[in-house]
Records
---
Amino acid sequence: QVQLQESGPGLMKPSETLSLTCTVSGDSINGHVIAWIRQPPGKGLEWIGYIYYTGGTNYNPSHKSRVTFSVDMSKNQFSLKLTSVNAADTAVYYCARYYCPDTVCRGFDYWGQGTLVTVSS
Amino acid sequence: QTVVTQEPSFSVSPGGTVTLTCGLSSGSVSTSHYPSWYQQTPGQAPRTLIYDTNARSSGVPDRFSGSILGNNAALTITGAQADDESDYYCMLYMGSGFWVFGGGTKLSVL
């Protein structure tokens, strides 16, 4: 059973750097692509970007200047860093695994349960 | 910038059939957008229903089906049940590795 588990700081202050991890269990991350998605309270889902197990990335242009993804194969883990957070970054952050039967991905097959990040002074 | 559009809300009677749509502010949705659909109940993570236009995710009942209808991707729920009352999001591939979610549809079963 594949499971994704996000972890993060919970509460942050403006201007700090957010660090989240997504730990995958039940399968190796080798060969897979992980997306990061967020959802502000009461609002819809927003695609932040994705990272391949090789480290290749693609970011939503809206966040490209502040976000960085990385991968740690030894820990079966992906990470997100978001710099200079502000109140608008308050959201539940999800990681999700793409279903990619060939060179093109088709959507997600597994989601994490999400972690709430609140930015407040 | 192209926006992915969904009905903000919809209602269906128990046992009825409803079709939710996913469109583009400019242009038509096709299978090349690899439309996928996600169900989310309050306080829960999204659950994948449909990927690649019409492929049901593991464990999803066949009451849920995906298709292309006209210029839109569509999610059809037949025999609606009370626990289908949820938010439904579509996601489209816009090319160049870029994916976009629709704004979501709040479905009421009443």
---
Amino acid sequence: EAGVTQSPTHLIKTRGQQATLRCSPISGHTSVYWYQQALGLGLQFLLWYDEGEERNRGNFPPRFSGRQFPNYSSELNVNALELEDSALYLCASSLEAGAVQFFGPGTRLTVL
Amino acid sequence: QKEVEQDPGPLSVPEGAIVSLNCTYSNSAFQYFMWYRQYSRKGPELLMYTYSSGNKEDGRFTAQVDKSSKYISLFIRDSQPSDSATYLCAMKESGGSNYKLTFGKGTLLTVNP
């Protein structure tokens, strides 16, 4: 069974640009979660989508947004990139809301 | 006070040693406890998932939860060089709409052959 997949693996942007990160959950999983892992800060919860709806949001500014598509894949958009947005962005999926979360390999975003 | 505290290490042990990793937490609403292993430049991999206080064993790994003390542990027996990674504790509240995981900062473990 294929795990959670994320694309691209690496992304390099400059300040002020926009970044789009993509996630495909494990087949049959309906919930998708996004986390940011910045150096020295640990993993921090960003967003949770379930059945196409945003269900919960972490303590991040509105320029972090996303959506979940009918096939349950998800997209994270980061607008007006800042240097401190440089981090590993991890996507996780679960079979249903609240079930065990399985993580993808992450997208490493570098903002120059 | 952070919700979850975890000693970042680094922790270096010889092959075959017993490793003890710990986290403390302050939020009494946390009911589910997990340990993830993360190799360098990879995503976290679920090792253990527990709900109740007590011990749960899976091969060389034992997870221990003490809700009264708000303290969780992961023990690794007969540690191997392949166990070298960052170990993350994670916690989750029960029910409602708050299914996010709250993580410790991770402990970097090196097992030396």
